[in-house]
Amino acid sequence: MIAVQQKVPNATVYEFISEETEGCTLGPNAFQVAEILKGKKVVIFGLPGAYTPTCSAQHVPGYVEHAAAIKAKGVDEIWCVAVNDAFVMGAWGKDLKVGKTVRMMSDGSGELTKALGLELDLVARGLGVRSQRYMMIVNDGVVEHLAVEAAGKFEVSDAASALKNL
After folding, report:
1. Residue 16 in contact with residue 105, Cβ under 8 Å?
2. What CA–CA distance (Å, rounded) separates 156 from 148?
3. Is 104 exposed, middle or buried (0-12, 13-18, 19+ CB in 10 A)?
4. 23 occurs within a structural domain
5. Which residues are part of the catalytic machinery?
6. What CATH number did the domain enclosing 67 receive?
7. What is the pLDDT of residue 126?
8. Is there a domain that residue 153 lies in?
9. Using alpha carbons only, what angle is made at residue 164 by residues 163 and 166, rounded to the nearest 5 degrees?
10. What confidence tens digit (pLDDT) does each residue in 1-39 have?
């Protein structure tokens, strides 16, 4: 598992872009994690999946609610990472009205999640291999803080915990 003071491994993540901008087309766009973390302070929170109860009712909405306070502490971006495809992450973000407060990053194949050592095997429950619930603060690609939830818990990866650790 990734640890504090380690560099986040490179992987490809995808983000559904709903407005075309310079360098980003409509639809899923691929990004190299190492490249988009360069020179930025980013709060990354990972969760088991889009549209799941705790994730939809508490995890993402908490980050949307506290985004301004988090960014006021010098954070450039907030990412939500889940092992879902970019279409699902885009639709979920739209449903939760995240706007530009949280980047909904798709790790559809689990490439980043596996490289971080934070996968969660839910095959027996029909959910495949997902991500553990976690939060990390990354500065210029290096982990400054990492909190991984115990199974079934939601105590250390929420937005309030991110604020406390910034």
Report:
1. no
2. 7
3. buried
4. yes
5. 55
6. 3.40.30.10
7. 72
8. yes
9. 65
10. 999 999 999 999 999 988 767 777 778 999 999 999 999
Residue 114, φ and ψ in degrees, nearest 5:
-65, -40
85 pLDDT exceeds 90?
A: yes
Q: Which of 84, 135, 134, 90 is CA-nearest to residue 110?
A: 84
The rounded mean pLDDT for the chain is: 94
Burial of 150 (0-12, 13-18, 19+ CB in 10 A): exposed
SS3 for the chain is CCCCCCECCCCEEEEEECCCECCECCEEEEEEHHHHHCCCEEEEEECCCCCCHHHHHHHHHHHHHHHHHHHCCCCCEEEEEECCCHHHHHHHHHHCCCCCCCEEEECCCCHHHHHHCCEEEEHHHCCEEEECCEEEEEECCEEEEEEECCCCCCCCCCHHHHHHHC
Which domain, by its residues, includes 100? 12-165
The string of pLDDT tens digits covering residues 142-154 is: 999 999 999 889 9
Please count the structural domains in the chain. 1
- Structure confidence at residue 121 (pLDDT): 82
